[in-house]
Amino acid sequence: MRDLFHGETAYGHRSREHDPDVNKPARIRSRASPLAIDTARRASRLLAFAAMLLWTSCMTAPASAQTPFIVDDVDVTERGKVHLEFLNEYDVLQRSAEPSLRQNATLLSVTVGVYKNVEVGIEVPAIVIFNTEDIIPRRPLGLSDVGANVKLKLRSEKQGSVLPALGFVFGVRFPTGNTARDLGSGVANYQIYGIAEKSLTKKIKLRGNAGIFLAGNTAEGVLGVRTRNNGRLFSGGVSITKQYSERLLLGAELTGVANGSLELSEGQLQTMFGGNYQLTKKLALDAGIIAGHFPASPRFGFLLGFSYDF
Question: How far apart are CA 48 and CA 294, in angstroms?
Answer without folding.
Answer: 16
